[in-house]
Fold this sequence. Notes:
With 326 residues, this protein is of the alpha/beta class. Helices cover 55% and strands 9% of the residues.
Amino acid sequence: MSVLERQAVWRKLLTVECDVNDKPKIILICGPTAIGKTSVAIDAAERIGGEIVGADSMQIYRYMDIGTAKPTAEEKRRIRHHMIDIADPDEPYDAARFTRESRAAVDAILARRRIPVIAGGTGFYIKALLYGLCDAVPEDETVRHRLREEAALFGGEPLYRRLEACDPEAVGRIHPNDTYRIVRALEVYEASGMPMSEYRRRHGFSDAPYTVLKIGLYMDRQALYARIDQRVEEMVRQGLQDEVKQLLTTGYHESLRPMQALGYRHMAAFITGEADWDATIATLKRDTRQYAKRQLTWFRKDPEIQWFEPEQGERIVSCVRAFLGE
């Protein structure tokens, strides 16, 4: 029996006591950066017998700790974490691989008769884990290679402007510096004549193997922005500049997709002399606030999310326990 077959058997065994048609129950804790998802998730997991599955597109990378705000060693001792430090910064990684590996982690947790707690802020990765991806999206290596060459020669901005014209919905989800996703979206359009967003709409993310309680964290916008500014300053104190310098020295070029993430591209620009210190910190704070705003916009489109403030831990745990039937 294969691993996938064993996981399917376990999934059936875990739900047979209630109803053979039930799906395994999992918890999602999501929200914008710096709002306190890790603390809330750890507290909830400790009290319900859970393990945490990270849903952060940057925490998967090794050697990138400070800028991604990974759980501390103490936090990982308190609760077992999954989907953290599983790829090198120059290793290809996408939502399809995340879906496979995160679902394997969820199924392993269920097999141990514990509760999976999904915690993170990467909306597309979360959606892929919960509902799957559209396998029918076309690929064309010739088109992809040409687009990558264009990006190398002229930068990502011309490609981004081209994507605005052919798939404005996708542009709303993709950062102008995310060359990887820009190229992928243009590849789909040029190979098929259909925007990536249309493929996703037709698919409807219909592969949903779990019953999910969705908990979103929110707070006053200005209070969140103040927390973001404080987090940036704390990351700098912890040695973000040295972390980025070490990555560059090791050979992880600043053009790599993970090195274009918040904090890393900013510090790389400072280290290479493209920006002064004050401008670097100010821009990092601004860009992080803008990212948090985009995260909130994404999550607020989901009517199934129940919203709580991070300080409402008791209410969150009560909601989780009611969902689990405790």
